[in-house]
Design a protein that fits this description.
The complex is a heterodimer of chains A (153) and B (110). Chain A has 153 residues and is α+β, with helices and mostly antiparallel strands. Helix content of chain A is 29%, strand content 28%. At the A-B interface, helix 2 and helix 3 of A face strand 4, helix 2 and helix 3 of B.
Chain lengths: 153, 110
């Protein structure tokens, strides 16, 4: 996995406290158990209560949902890879699907504008960006990877 | 997630237990729409036992709000904890819904 250091955030004395990796089929019923596992690890590793109750579960659910439904088009035979690394400075989550990816910068809907408030969709990426310190996308071995970084508070 | 719908006077009170997310929000939507179709007009959704809500859960609440309003009904939300309140504030959905701190206040507001 590409360590957090490659994005320039990790210090030399930052050490990894847990690494977690799972491969799940593209089924939305897989989301809640995985999110629970990751959140539990975050609690044990003393991320803040707010981060464990809100930021991590919601942002990870959004990323998994996108990977399953959009990236893998809900095809159960395709898989989503979830990686989580908690260090002294941050949590880094990576969600990889088998799709062709999308341009994060092109997703510019503001769901909070008055004209969009009554839309039923369009809040997923907004929530990831609001709840995580950084949201990035890259391609890796024929996978589309979304990386979410949350600094410890 | 599990939820229960109980009548309290004229009001359908829905308790959402667990998470309201992509895998289960359709079930909530259908159950409320079933009650709407039976002629129920007043709905209160109580989140005191809800962990978190994702964007599709929020989308279902927006959808229900519209449909209930179109039928001349009313929807209230109650018992959002601080984390859920933050979610509604971030998305500005706190301006779209009538949200009460307690079930009792929500019931009185109809």
């Amino acid at each position: 996995m590409t360590p957090a250091g490659e994005s320039g955030e990790r210090t030399h004395d930052d050490h990894i406290r847990v690494a977690f990796e799972r491969l799940i089929p593209s089924d939305v019923r897989e989301i809640e158990p995985i999110v629970e596992q990751v959140t539990r690890e975050c609690r044990v590793l003393a991320l803040s209560a707010r981060q464990c109750a809100l930021n991590v579960p919601v942002a990870l659910t959004e990323a998994l949902s996108n990977a399953i439904l959009r990236g893998n088009r809900g095809m159960r035979e395709k898989h989503v890879r979830v990686r989580a690394v908690v260090s002294d400075s941050a949590l880094v989550l990576e969600v990889a699907d088998e799709g062709t990816g999308f341009d994060l910068d092109a997703c510019t809907i503001d769901p909070t504008s008055p004209g969009n408030l009554e839309r039923e969709d369009g809040r997923g990426l907004f929530l990831m960006r609001s709840l995580m310190d950084r949201v990035e996308r890259y391609a890796d071995d024929a996978h589309n990877v979304v990386r979410l970084t949350l600094n410890r508070s | 997630m599990s939820f229960s719908i109980k009548k309290q006077g004229e009001i359908c009170v829905v308790d959402v237990e667990g998470q309201l997310i992509v895998g289960n929000r359709q079930e909530l939507k259908q159950k409320v729409l079933d009650e709407l179709e039976k002629g129920e007009k007043k709905f209160l959704i109580d989140f005191s036992q809800t962990g978190y809500i994702d964007s599709s859960g929020l989308g279902v609440l927006v959808s229900l709000s519209k449909k209930i309003r179109e039928q001349g009904g009313e929807l209230r939300l109650a018992n959002l904890n601080d984390d859920l309140k933050t979610l509604f504030e971030l998305t500005k959905l706190d301006t779209l819904f009538q949200i009460a701190d307690t079930r009792e206040r929500a019931l009185e507001s109809f």
